[in-house]
Design goal:
Structural class: alpha/beta
Strand content: 15-25%
CATH architecture of the largest domain: Alpha-Beta Complex
Number of domains: 2
Bound molecules: guanosine-5'-diphosphate, 6-O-phosphoryl inosine monophosphate, magnesium ion
Largest sheet: 10 strands, mixed
CATH superfamily of the largest domain: Adenylosuccinate Synthetase, subunit A, domain 3
């Protein structure tokens, strides 16, 4: 009964979408288990490029059932917009299943996300402004609206009323905004009911039955380990559990059913939004990584902060997630650098520290200790086996494998599905 998890091992945008797509033809179901349309997964198949935000990347694989799990927060307008966009390009989305227990992003939470960020000023998180944080906060505060609530108007109205009782006070008295009308919110949400109804299911039961039939379930994370609300660089994180533990709670699949955990890690590092990033570059090398790697957000278009590979972070992600295999992505982006620094430890207040420090204060003070590896100039985008790589690129991969806490089973040398080196089978 194989359940396989894909998680981001850094700060997001490692290439989870491509990795999911690579396995899409070999799995029966792909489940998104956390986050919402704060995610942006780009998948390139031949001449076609898809940017997915809310839908699991498995939607692009014919024969695979895409599932939006209970741990996801769903913006219904975005859901149908994304479905329509894919259908217009000839992608069949009819197999999509949505959990009855997933929470719905109401318009007032999008508003609150944006005004809170403005209110925070220099203390802002740099969120995507999609209402993610306030919607998860409602879930934890037991004020949330779930997909199933849309099928009972009385319950829906009571829940929206309950949520707005407090939020309208905050919106008007703290943020000086206009209050939100209960009827308007209820009406908007009810407008989606007929289209939504056939997609909604008891997804934990559906997944359990699929596993019983020995089907393969792929659990695809949004965001990443260092953005996880528990294990990330809090408070500069997203509001969901983006790690393997979240794959269980966000889908209803038990930990004992997970057979593989695939960590996606870039050959360098990037981050969008605020928060600590020890290997961040502010020089020409950072700009070269940004330009060569196309490091601009899929969701917000913001330039991504770029830096060198951080091994303590990778080891941390390996531990937190129980990574069995790493997929190392974007190795091709390093082509042309004379030497490539890798952060192997930190220096914190004059001391060498090998692992992710315990406190936020220490992490803010962490200076990278670099080891330097010789670069290569050959174009590697056509490499399809380790032997096709120049010796220095092979040595770089071997060095990363040694210090990152798990084996590297797949290497990306370009955005296309085909631009991939398979070292060990990710599913076998
Ligand atoms: P995700 O959020 O983890 O799915 O990653 P994103 O899609 O936001 O960002 C990864 C970007 O890198 C996308 O534009 C991918 O098409 C691209 N990409 C993925 N793997 C590779 C690779 O091995 N080489 C290059 N050059 N680009 C890649
Ligand atoms: P994928 O799935 C990179 C970041 C935001 C911000 C913080 C909180 O494509 O890897 P939120 O809107 O979630 O409350 O913002 O998290 N963030 C991401 N960064 N990739 C993502 O998703 C992200 N989703 C959220 O930039 O710093
Ligand atoms: Mg992304």
């Amino acid at each position: 009964m194989p359940a396989v998890v894909i998680v981001g091992a850094q700060w997001g945008d490692e290439g989870k979408g491509k990795a999911t797509d690579l396995l899409g033809s070999r799995v029966d179901l792909v489940v998104k288990f956390n986050g919402g349309n704060n995610a942006g997964h780009t998948v390139v198949i031949g001449d076609e490029k898809y940017a997915l935000h809310l839908l699991p990347s498995g939607i692009l694989s014919p024969g695979c059932t895409p599932v939006i799990g209970n741990g996801v927060v769903v913006d219904l307008e975005v859901l149908f917009h994304e479905i329509d966009g894919l259908e217009a390009r000839g992608i069949d989305t009819s197999r999509l299943v949505v959990s009855a227990n997933a929470h719905v992003i109401a318009d007032y939470n999008r508003t609150l996300d944006k005004v809170t960020e403005r209110f925070l000023g220099s203390r802002k998180i740099g969120t995507t402004g999609r209402g993610i944080g306030p919607t998860y906060a409602d879930k934890m505060n037991r004020l949330g609206v779930r997909v199933q609530d849309l099928f009972d108007e009385k319950i829906l109205r009571a829940k929206v009323e309950g949520a707005l009782e407090l939020k309208n006070q905050i919106l008007t008295k703290v943020y000086n905004r206009r209050s939100v009308d209960v009827d308007e919110v209820v009406e908007e949400l009810l407008g989606y009911v007929e289209r939504l109804r056939p997609m909604v299911a008891d997804t934990p039961l559906l997944l359990h039955e699929a596993l019983e039939r020995n089907e393969t379930v792929l659990l695809e994370a949004g965001q990443a380990t260092l953005l996880d609300v528990d294990h990330g660089t809090y408070p500069f994180v997203t509001s969901s559990s983006a790690t393997t533990g979240g794959a269980c709670t966000g889908s209803g699949i038990a930990p004992t059913q997970i057979t593989r955990v695939i960590g996606i890690v870039k050959a360098y590092a990037t981050r969008v939004g605020e928060g600590p990033f020890p290997t961040e570059l502010f020089d020409d090398d950072g700009e070269t990584l940004r330009q060569n790697g196309g490091e601009f957000g899929t969701t917000t278009g913001r330039p991504r902060r770029c830096g060198w590979y951080d091994a303590p972070i990778a080891r941390y992600a390996a531990r937190i997630n129980g990574v069995t295999d790493f997929v190392l992505t974007k190795l091709d982006v390093l082509t042309g650098f004379e030497q490539i620094p890798v952060c192997v430890a930190y220096e914190i207040d004059g001391e060498r520290v090998e692992e992710m420090p315990m406190t936020q204060t220490d992490f803010h003070h962490a200076k990278p200790v670099y080891e330097y590896f010789p670069g290569w100039t050959e174009d590697i985008s056509g490499a399809r086996s380790l032997e096709d790589l120049p010796a220095n690129a092979q040595a770089y991969v071997a060095a990363l494998e040694k210090i990152s806490g798990s084996r590297i089973s797949t290497i990306g040398v370009g955005p296309d599905r085909e631009q991939t080196i398979l070292v060990h089978d990710l599913l076998d």
